[in-house]
Predict the structure.
Amino acid sequence: MPLGTIDRTPPPIFRQGWSALSKLVFFSALALFLMVADTRVAVIAPLRATIATALLPVQVALLVPVDLVRGGGDYLRGLARALHDEDAARKQLALQAERAAQGERLAVENARLRALLDLQPALAVRSVAAEVLYEAADPYSRKLFVNRGTTQGVVAGAPVINEAGVLGQVTRTFLRSAEVTLVTDKDAAIPVINSRTQQRGAAYGGLAKGSAMELRFVAGNADVKVGDLLLTSGGDGVYPAGLAVAKVAQVERQAEGGFARVTLAPASMADGVRHVLVLEPLALQLPPRPEPAPDGLKPPNKGRKAAGAAP
């Protein structure tokens, strides 16, 4: 074959167009031109919006599995939470229904007993709402001050309570404030009655723990158990009957001693208390005692008896 007839052009795979430098310069200039054009006349904005609109269904379709996984997890967690709340609500409803039935039964029984015994209605206890100002700085006592005093009708000896039970007693009064000695103070004492056994006693404060009380003079074989609720007896003429005072926290029976050591947990703690009620002592609400008869007068029955006994 003659050499002149041979095709000396390179095959297509080895053909080369523009050089790499030419391509870099061209596309760099094109990119710069598009950026300037988009900044000046915003010619790329419609194209960008069209591409975004076209890709929106694709994005939504790709997000469907993610939303399904997240929604399924939230649904399962919400279902478990709802079942737990339903179970707790059913238990609370059953407990409230039991308490309501017991309260209605006790109210009916109380009304029948009062009607049967012809008891007088309970005395209405007057009260004054007060706010705690501060606690006394004395580390050896448990006292606080409230913003009600003699101007608002507060008197010394008035009981002080909150929603949990007896908090203390007013020991000093001022014009617009009063000092309240807490039931946990070392000098505090309050007559109580065991709500379970109806046994009376006296609760004292001032234990080493600071926030505990003690039921003193309890026989070693007395029927006192941990958890017994102690209420005000109402026999002292100060506290109304039925107010929560403390619960029995510990009972120590000593074989060599005649008394048991009974530790109490106060029903109302002074820590965090802001609003209280100052009650009027019961002694101020009772009717006045009748005046004694003069010495020269005798009751009619005694006079008739003496006349019948004379010769």
